[in-house]
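quick one if you have a minute, typing this from the bus. theres a chain ive been looking at and ive put its sequence and its fold in C-alpha coordinate form underneath. please have a look and point out which stretches look like helix strand or loop to you. anything you notice is useful, everything is just below.

***
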Amino acid sequence: MHCRAVGSRQIAAYLPQSGFSAGRHRVRRLMGIMGLQAVYKGPNTSKKHPQHRIYPYLLRKLAITRHNQVWCSDINRTTRSLSLTDEGRTLLSGAKVVLGEVEELEARIRHGAETLSGPIRVSAPIDLGRSIVSDVVADFTAENPAISVELLLSDGYVDIVGQGVDLALRYGVITDSTLRTRSLGRFRRIVCAAPAYLAEHGAPQTPEDLTQHNCLIMRLGMTLDNVWRFGPDTKPQTVTVRGNKTVNDGALVRQWAIEGHGIILKSELDVAPDIAAGRLVALLEDYAAPPTPLQMMFPPGRAQPRRVRALADAFSHTMAMRQRQ
Protein backbone atom coordinates (compact mmCIF):
# COMPACT_ATOMS: atom_id res chain seq x y z
CA MET A 1 0.00 0.00 0.00
CA HIS A 2 1.43 3.39 -1.00
CA CYS A 3 0.27 6.50 0.81
CA ARG A 4 1.39 10.09 1.24
CA ALA A 5 1.28 11.52 4.74
CA VAL A 6 0.78 15.26 5.24
CA GLY A 7 2.77 16.37 8.28
CA SER A 8 1.93 18.95 10.89
CA ARG A 9 4.66 21.21 9.52
CA GLN A 10 2.82 21.44 6.20
CA ILE A 11 -0.53 22.25 7.82
CA ALA A 12 0.98 24.62 10.38
CA ALA A 13 2.75 26.48 7.57
CA TYR A 14 -0.61 27.93 6.59
CA LEU A 15 -1.00 29.55 10.02
CA PRO A 16 0.41 33.03 10.67
CA GLN A 17 3.89 32.99 12.17
CA SER A 18 2.93 35.16 15.15
CA GLY A 19 0.00 35.09 17.55
CA PHE A 20 -1.02 31.51 16.79
CA SER A 21 1.54 29.38 18.62
CA ALA A 22 -1.19 27.65 20.63
CA GLY A 23 -3.12 26.92 17.46
CA ARG A 24 -0.01 25.55 15.78
CA HIS A 25 0.60 23.27 18.77
CA ARG A 26 -2.99 21.98 18.60
CA VAL A 27 -2.61 21.23 14.90
CA ARG A 28 0.51 19.20 15.64
CA ARG A 29 -1.24 17.27 18.38
CA LEU A 30 -4.19 16.62 16.06
CA MET A 31 -1.86 15.25 13.41
CA GLY A 32 -0.36 12.90 15.98
CA ILE A 33 -3.83 11.70 16.99
CA MET A 34 -4.77 11.19 13.34
CA GLY A 35 -1.63 9.12 12.88
CA LEU A 36 -2.50 7.01 15.93
CA GLN A 37 -6.01 6.39 14.65
CA ALA A 38 -4.69 5.52 11.18
CA VAL A 39 -2.11 2.93 12.19
CA TYR A 40 -3.75 1.28 15.20
CA LYS A 41 -5.74 -1.81 14.20
CA GLY A 42 -6.52 -3.33 17.59
CA PRO A 43 -4.52 -5.48 20.03
CA ASN A 44 -2.10 -7.97 18.53
CA THR A 45 -3.19 -10.99 20.57
CA SER A 46 -3.32 -13.75 17.99
CA LYS A 47 -1.07 -14.93 15.20
CA LYS A 48 -4.22 -16.05 13.39
CA HIS A 49 -5.40 -12.44 13.10
CA PRO A 50 -2.39 -10.38 12.08
CA GLN A 51 -4.63 -7.52 10.98
CA HIS A 52 -5.35 -6.79 14.66
CA ARG A 53 -2.12 -4.92 15.37
CA ILE A 54 -0.29 -1.66 15.37
CA TYR A 55 1.72 -1.33 12.20
CA PRO A 56 5.17 -1.18 13.87
CA TYR A 57 7.07 0.54 11.08
CA LEU A 58 4.59 3.39 10.73
CA LEU A 59 4.23 3.73 14.47
CA ARG A 60 7.97 4.02 15.09
CA LYS A 61 8.33 6.59 12.31
CA LEU A 62 5.61 8.69 13.93
CA ALA A 63 6.58 8.10 17.54
CA ILE A 64 10.15 9.36 17.16
CA THR A 65 9.21 12.70 15.60
CA ARG A 66 9.25 15.78 17.77
CA HIS A 67 5.76 16.79 16.69
CA ASN A 68 4.19 13.51 17.78
CA GLN A 69 5.32 13.53 21.40
CA VAL A 70 1.67 13.04 22.36
CA TRP A 71 2.26 9.35 21.64
CA CYS A 72 4.87 8.77 24.34
CA SER A 73 2.40 8.12 27.17
CA ASP A 74 -0.13 6.39 24.94
CA ILE A 75 1.90 3.39 23.74
CA ASN A 76 3.43 0.42 25.54
CA ARG A 77 6.60 -0.40 23.64
CA THR A 78 8.79 -3.47 24.11
CA THR A 79 11.38 -5.13 21.91
CA ARG A 80 8.70 -7.56 20.65
CA SER A 81 5.41 -5.69 20.59
CA LEU A 82 3.56 -2.38 20.61
CA SER A 83 0.20 -1.81 22.29
CA LEU A 84 -1.91 1.04 23.61
CA THR A 85 -1.94 2.12 27.25
CA ASP A 86 -5.23 2.93 28.99
CA GLU A 87 -4.56 6.59 28.18
CA GLY A 88 -3.95 5.66 24.55
CA ARG A 89 -7.25 3.78 24.30
CA THR A 90 -9.08 6.76 25.80
CA LEU A 91 -7.38 9.06 23.31
CA LEU A 92 -8.21 6.77 20.39
CA SER A 93 -11.87 6.48 21.39
CA GLY A 94 -12.25 10.25 21.60
CA ALA A 95 -10.26 10.77 18.41
CA LYS A 96 -12.68 8.58 16.44
CA VAL A 97 -15.58 10.80 17.54
CA VAL A 98 -13.76 14.06 16.75
CA LEU A 99 -12.46 12.90 13.38
CA GLY A 100 -15.90 11.53 12.51
CA GLU A 101 -17.40 14.96 13.14
CA VAL A 102 -14.70 16.58 11.00
CA GLU A 103 -15.42 14.14 8.15
CA GLU A 104 -19.14 14.86 8.37
CA LEU A 105 -18.51 18.62 8.29
CA GLU A 106 -16.31 18.22 5.22
CA ALA A 107 -18.99 16.09 3.53
CA ARG A 108 -21.69 18.67 4.27
CA ILE A 109 -19.53 21.40 2.76
CA ARG A 110 -18.65 19.27 -0.28
CA HIS A 111 -22.12 17.88 -1.00
CA GLY A 112 -24.38 20.50 0.54
CA ALA A 113 -25.81 20.91 4.03
CA GLU A 114 -28.94 18.85 3.30
CA THR A 115 -27.18 15.95 1.55
CA LEU A 116 -26.37 12.83 3.52
CA SER A 117 -23.01 11.35 2.59
CA GLY A 118 -20.21 9.18 3.88
CA PRO A 119 -19.74 5.58 5.07
CA ILE A 120 -21.86 3.69 7.62
CA ARG A 121 -20.80 0.36 9.12
CA VAL A 122 -23.75 -1.79 10.24
CA SER A 123 -23.78 -5.10 12.15
CA ALA A 124 -26.82 -7.38 12.25
CA PRO A 125 -27.84 -11.01 12.87
CA ILE A 126 -27.47 -13.12 9.74
CA ASP A 127 -31.12 -13.99 9.05
CA LEU A 128 -32.38 -10.52 9.89
CA GLY A 129 -29.55 -8.97 7.92
CA ARG A 130 -30.33 -10.90 4.76
CA SER A 131 -33.98 -9.90 4.81
CA ILE A 132 -35.28 -6.79 6.58
CA VAL A 133 -31.94 -5.05 7.16
CA SER A 134 -30.86 -5.63 3.56
CA ASP A 135 -34.14 -4.17 2.27
CA VAL A 136 -33.83 -1.08 4.47
CA VAL A 137 -30.22 -0.53 3.39
CA ALA A 138 -31.16 -0.88 -0.29
CA ASP A 139 -33.92 1.72 0.01
CA PHE A 140 -31.76 4.05 2.10
CA THR A 141 -28.81 4.03 -0.30
CA ALA A 142 -31.15 4.51 -3.26
CA GLU A 143 -32.53 7.64 -1.59
CA ASN A 144 -29.07 8.81 -0.52
CA PRO A 145 -26.60 7.91 -3.30
CA ALA A 146 -23.69 9.63 -1.53
CA ILE A 147 -23.99 7.11 1.34
CA SER A 148 -22.05 3.84 1.35
CA VAL A 149 -23.02 1.03 3.75
CA GLU A 150 -20.85 -1.89 4.87
CA LEU A 151 -23.07 -4.64 6.30
CA LEU A 152 -21.44 -7.13 8.71
CA LEU A 153 -23.58 -10.21 9.41
CA SER A 154 -22.93 -12.33 12.49
CA ASP A 155 -25.03 -14.18 15.06
CA GLY A 156 -22.23 -14.08 17.64
CA TYR A 157 -20.71 -11.37 19.81
CA VAL A 158 -19.45 -8.32 17.95
CA ASP A 159 -17.14 -5.71 19.48
CA ILE A 160 -18.77 -2.69 17.87
CA VAL A 161 -16.19 -0.25 19.25
CA GLY A 162 -13.17 -2.34 18.29
CA GLN A 163 -14.56 -3.10 14.83
CA GLY A 164 -15.60 0.48 14.13
CA VAL A 165 -19.33 -0.32 13.84
CA ASP A 166 -21.60 2.73 13.69
CA LEU A 167 -24.88 0.89 14.31
CA ALA A 168 -25.61 -2.69 15.41
CA LEU A 169 -28.91 -4.57 15.67
CA ARG A 170 -29.14 -7.23 18.37
CA TYR A 171 -31.84 -9.27 20.12
CA GLY A 172 -32.11 -9.40 23.91
CA VAL A 173 -31.03 -7.22 26.80
CA ILE A 174 -27.81 -5.27 26.25
CA THR A 175 -25.42 -5.82 29.16
CA ASP A 176 -22.74 -3.29 28.14
CA SER A 177 -23.78 -0.09 29.93
CA THR A 178 -21.29 2.03 27.95
CA LEU A 179 -23.21 1.52 24.69
CA ARG A 180 -26.09 3.74 23.71
CA THR A 181 -29.25 1.86 22.72
CA ARG A 182 -32.52 2.52 20.95
CA SER A 183 -35.43 0.09 21.06
CA LEU A 184 -36.90 -1.30 17.86
CA GLY A 185 -39.73 -3.12 19.62
CA ARG A 186 -40.31 -6.56 21.06
CA PHE A 187 -40.84 -9.66 18.94
CA ARG A 188 -41.86 -13.24 19.75
CA ARG A 189 -39.62 -16.26 19.36
CA ILE A 190 -41.57 -19.07 17.72
CA VAL A 191 -41.02 -22.83 17.94
CA CYS A 192 -41.70 -24.25 14.49
CA ALA A 193 -41.05 -27.13 12.10
CA ALA A 194 -41.84 -28.16 8.53
CA PRO A 195 -45.02 -30.13 7.73
CA ALA A 196 -42.82 -33.01 6.49
CA TYR A 197 -41.06 -33.30 9.86
CA LEU A 198 -44.35 -33.20 11.79
CA ALA A 199 -45.90 -35.81 9.51
CA GLU A 200 -43.08 -38.23 10.32
CA HIS A 201 -42.43 -37.44 13.99
CA GLY A 202 -45.61 -35.81 15.25
CA ALA A 203 -45.95 -32.42 16.93
CA PRO A 204 -44.86 -31.76 20.54
CA GLN A 205 -47.82 -30.99 22.79
CA THR A 206 -45.87 -29.52 25.72
CA PRO A 207 -42.39 -28.00 26.06
CA GLU A 208 -41.17 -31.18 27.79
CA ASP A 209 -41.98 -33.13 24.63
CA LEU A 210 -39.14 -31.31 22.86
CA THR A 211 -36.65 -33.56 24.64
CA GLN A 212 -37.95 -36.40 22.44
CA HIS A 213 -37.48 -34.45 19.20
CA ASN A 214 -34.56 -33.46 16.99
CA CYS A 215 -34.05 -29.75 17.65
CA LEU A 216 -31.77 -27.69 15.44
CA ILE A 217 -29.52 -25.54 17.60
CA MET A 218 -27.94 -22.15 17.05
CA ARG A 219 -24.46 -21.28 18.28
CA LEU A 220 -24.21 -17.64 19.34
CA GLY A 221 -20.49 -16.97 19.62
CA MET A 222 -19.22 -19.28 22.35
CA THR A 223 -22.74 -20.04 23.64
CA LEU A 224 -25.17 -22.73 22.51
CA ASP A 225 -28.78 -21.58 22.28
CA ASN A 226 -30.05 -24.93 23.55
CA VAL A 227 -31.97 -23.76 26.63
CA TRP A 228 -35.38 -22.75 25.32
CA ARG A 229 -37.65 -20.62 27.49
CA PHE A 230 -41.41 -20.84 27.75
CA GLY A 231 -44.26 -19.39 29.77
CA PRO A 232 -44.93 -15.90 31.18
CA ASP A 233 -42.49 -14.03 33.41
CA THR A 234 -44.56 -15.03 36.46
CA LYS A 235 -44.17 -18.74 35.67
CA PRO A 236 -41.14 -19.28 33.43
CA GLN A 237 -40.11 -22.71 32.20
CA THR A 238 -36.92 -23.85 30.51
CA VAL A 239 -36.19 -26.96 28.48
CA THR A 240 -32.71 -28.09 27.40
CA VAL A 241 -33.02 -29.42 23.87
CA ARG A 242 -30.75 -31.63 21.76
CA GLY A 243 -30.33 -32.38 18.10
CA ASN A 244 -28.00 -33.68 15.42
CA LYS A 245 -27.20 -30.29 13.84
CA THR A 246 -25.68 -27.13 15.32
CA VAL A 247 -24.69 -24.04 13.34
CA ASN A 248 -23.71 -20.41 13.88
CA ASP A 249 -25.79 -19.21 10.92
CA GLY A 250 -29.43 -18.29 11.57
CA ALA A 251 -30.37 -18.49 7.90
CA LEU A 252 -28.99 -22.02 7.60
CA VAL A 253 -30.79 -23.32 10.69
CA ARG A 254 -34.04 -21.99 9.25
CA GLN A 255 -33.30 -23.65 5.91
CA TRP A 256 -32.68 -26.97 7.68
CA ALA A 257 -36.06 -26.67 9.36
CA ILE A 258 -37.81 -25.95 6.04
CA GLU A 259 -36.17 -29.08 4.61
CA GLY A 260 -37.68 -31.15 7.42
CA HIS A 261 -34.57 -31.87 9.50
CA GLY A 262 -35.97 -30.77 12.87
CA ILE A 263 -37.56 -28.16 15.13
CA ILE A 264 -36.21 -24.62 15.57
CA LEU A 265 -36.75 -21.60 17.82
CA LYS A 266 -36.52 -18.37 15.83
CA SER A 267 -37.71 -14.78 15.92
CA GLU A 268 -41.03 -14.07 14.25
CA LEU A 269 -39.15 -11.58 12.06
CA ASP A 270 -37.25 -14.51 10.55
CA VAL A 271 -39.96 -17.16 10.19
CA ALA A 272 -43.25 -15.25 9.78
CA PRO A 273 -43.07 -15.37 5.94
CA ASP A 274 -42.38 -19.14 6.03
CA ILE A 275 -45.29 -19.75 8.39
CA ALA A 276 -47.61 -17.64 6.24
CA ALA A 277 -46.53 -19.60 3.15
CA GLY A 278 -46.98 -22.98 4.86
CA ARG A 279 -43.31 -23.90 4.73
CA LEU A 280 -43.19 -23.97 8.55
CA VAL A 281 -45.83 -24.61 11.22
CA ALA A 282 -45.87 -22.74 14.56
CA LEU A 283 -45.82 -25.01 17.63
CA LEU A 284 -46.52 -24.67 21.37
CA GLU A 285 -48.04 -21.22 20.96
CA ASP A 286 -49.94 -21.55 24.27
CA TYR A 287 -46.58 -21.84 26.04
CA ALA A 288 -44.88 -18.90 24.35
CA ALA A 289 -42.40 -16.80 26.35
CA PRO A 290 -42.70 -13.00 26.48
CA PRO A 291 -41.46 -11.19 23.36
CA THR A 292 -37.73 -10.50 23.09
CA PRO A 293 -36.47 -6.92 22.63
CA LEU A 294 -34.71 -5.95 19.42
CA GLN A 295 -32.37 -3.02 19.90
CA MET A 296 -30.02 -0.79 17.99
CA MET A 297 -26.66 -0.19 19.66
CA PHE A 298 -24.31 2.70 19.05
CA PRO A 299 -20.72 3.18 20.26
CA PRO A 300 -20.18 5.53 23.20
CA GLY A 301 -19.36 9.11 22.36
CA ARG A 302 -21.07 12.36 21.70
CA ALA A 303 -23.46 13.06 18.85
CA GLN A 304 -24.04 10.50 16.11
CA PRO A 305 -23.39 11.63 12.54
CA ARG A 306 -26.53 12.73 10.72
CA ARG A 307 -26.23 9.87 8.26
CA VAL A 308 -26.24 7.30 11.10
CA ARG A 309 -29.23 8.97 12.77
CA ALA A 310 -31.08 8.92 9.44
CA LEU A 311 -30.43 5.20 8.91
CA ALA A 312 -31.48 4.48 12.51
CA ASP A 313 -34.75 6.34 11.83
CA ALA A 314 -35.28 4.18 8.74
CA PHE A 315 -34.87 1.00 10.81
CA SER A 316 -37.25 2.34 13.48
CA HIS A 317 -39.90 3.14 10.88
CA THR A 318 -39.64 -0.29 9.26
CA MET A 319 -39.86 -2.18 12.56
CA ALA A 320 -42.81 -0.06 13.69
CA MET A 321 -44.61 -1.00 10.49
CA ARG A 322 -43.84 -4.71 11.12
CA GLN A 323 -45.31 -4.56 14.60
CA ARG A 324 -48.55 -3.11 13.24
CA GLN A 325 -48.99 -5.96 10.76
